[in-house]
Amino acid sequence: MKAVGLTRYLPIQDPEALVDVELPDPEPSARDLLVRVHAVAVNPVDTKVRSPKDKVEPSPRVLGWDAAGVVEAVGPDCTLFKVGDPVYYAGDITRPGCNSQLHLVDERIVGKKPSSLDWAEAASIPLTALTAWESFQDRLGIDPTGDHAGRSLLIIGGGGGVGSIGIQLAKLWGLRVIATASRPESEAWCRELGADHVIDHRKPLAEGLAAIGLQTVDFIANFVDTAAYWDTMADLIRPQGRIVGIVETKTPVNVTRLQGKSAGFIFEMMFTRAMFKTEDMQAQHTILDQVADLLDTGRLRGTLRTRLGTIDAENLRRAHAQLESGHTAGKLALEGWG
């Protein structure tokens, strides 16, 4: 099968950073689906895993954690899907990624493809939707049925992939959403997705909140940089409020800043359930099916903004470079094999 992989971890400008390769076709076992991949999306996790380091892989490593395709074969223990089903999923970071024509994935973290979206649009949803949904419901404790309606949520990084779906989910769940953005196009994108307010994260966030009559917020979802905003978040969270972050800290943070407010901080990592085979691993299947229904009924909209052609090394290098530039709104996707 065709695939895109790496053996060395290089700057994305190096043509060897990602290369076209031929690999053996994988075979499903247990609860694995063998999916024929029609489209993939690219996320910051791809660039982080690929980032330069002193390491050489003995055989090509395939990245990619967002895909849509058709079930080609099923393992003997599968019960949720059958051959021919169109599916979408983010996958498991401990296994080979989806930048390959055929890909193995545990059915418990796979959802039915939204019928209203094309392949590229569908591939752009899973990782970000799972991250936002788990951030809000499982980490912040927000009720999707509306029990927290009217509460304030500050989304740091509203224009990115997770922020783009997060704004929509938060509005759907009844929250007052304040998103941050810095460029006119990303501000417009956040408003288009339903944000009640957009403030400039190049300026002190306290000033932006004060301008809309807020001193603190009930919840904070930081989808950009945990350490850089730590002290700001400690200042802006209300007493007994909750904060979720998705980016690891490279420098120490002072957790006692939250003590006086009895405020909570928790990390969200979309891959946790698959990595540790948690008892509730199949929750991701349920979430993705719910998201598909919301998309197909028009209550959510897709977040794909840029199509970069077919799935090959050159186009994936372009996608990585664009993400690393820090000026991406919405999602990037590639579709089909050249």
UniProtKB/TrEMBL annotation:
Annotated SUPFAM superfamilies: GroES-like, NAD(P)-binding Rossmann-fold domains
Alphabetic keyword roster: Metal-binding, Oxidoreductase, Zinc
Pfam families per UniProt: ADH_N, ADH_zinc_N_2
Superkingdom assignment: Bacteria
Listed GO MF terms: oxidoreductase activity; zinc ion binding
Keyword Isomerase: no
Ranges of residues in domain Enoyl reductase (ER): 13-334
Family classification: Belongs to the zinc-containing alcohol dehydrogenase family. Quinone oxidoreductase subfamily.
Protein name stated in the entry: Zinc-type alcohol dehydrogenase-like protein
